[in-house]
Amino acid sequence: MNYTLAELAQKLGAKVSGDETVTVSSLATLEGAQAGQIAFLANSKYRQSLAGTGASAVILSEDTLADCPTNALVMANPYMGYALVAQLLDSTPAPAKDIHASAVIDESADIGENVTIGANSVISAGVTLANGVSIGAGCFIGENAVIGENTRLWANVSVYHQVRMGQDCLVQSGSVIGSDGFGYAPNQGQWLKIPQLGTVVVGDRVEIGASTTIDRGALENTVIGDGVILDNQVQIAHNVIIGDNTAVAGCSVIAGSAVIGKNCTIAGMVAINGHMEIADGCVFTGRAMVTKAIKEPGVYSSGMPCMPNKEWNKTNARIKKLDQMAQRIKTLEKELAEIKK
């Protein structure tokens, strides 16, 4: 697929600097770009690569235009421009191209128009696949599940019974939606399984990374809001509610019945305890451990940065003496107060 700079400028709301008839067909980095490709500059630390780029055009902001040796698309947010051009030039194939002969589809399933289903996929009784749904090879869709228009599932995704997914969602390979929550009751030294009777409700425009697991609710539902993005290997426990447009990075864990607000950003390897609420607009940096409710938006951290082993050993030795040090400080404060009197 080819676009002239004039066509791209119209779609991006950008301004052309240079020859607007130049055609590009793919994206590349500033350093790796060649003729016929378009690059972008959104981070000032890559500005030094601009002068030597071989790109036919570069997406950049007004303040870097003077350093550009080639044609440019000028806009206030070059990174958004890059994302939009990537969508236009995306060559990713569909998860499936038709309904494969080896797919097993129950006769009671409601299959919409332009639905594609890959090899060896199973579509169970009562399933609804809306118009434009694409199901990759080896997927399992459980009884009475509903998948909204234009939602795409890559290979080997499992969607359990009664799960409801909105439209324009994307689920990467190996993800499991609607598996049992971790519900057990202690019984004379053994664990008695509690059937999970709720389901998972996924909103519109949700993206779910590879090998991510979303548990179904125990009684009420697990709910993923509109526009939520979940990275690879994220664990969402039963009855969690995630607000619209929240982002969760890889290997993070959200325990049961936690309520996460809208427009939150949860970095990698964050752990959030269950049965508490997180306000809208919170940001948690990597490896944060969230053990109590957060009522105000802001940036929260607790993970300890990496350091040389010798420094860590010294720090760890001092951590073990913190209680003793606190008692000494308390004693010194009392003595100081007596002296001041």
TrEMBL record:
It comes from the Bacteria. One of its GO terms (molecular function) is UDP-3-O-[(3R)-3-hydroxyacyl]-glucosamine N-acyltransferase activity. One of its GO terms (biological process) is lipid A biosynthetic process. The active site is at 238 (proton acceptor). Its EC number is 2.3.1.191. Signal peptide: none annotated. Pfam families: Hexapep, Hexapep_2, LpxD. It is an enzyme of class 2 (transferase). GO terms for cellular component: membrane. Homotrimer. This is UDP-3-O-acylglucosamine N-acyltransferase. It comes from Thalassomonas actiniarum. The lineage of its organism: Bacteria, Pseudomonadati, Pseudomonadota, Gammaproteobacteria, Alteromonadales. The gene is lpxD.
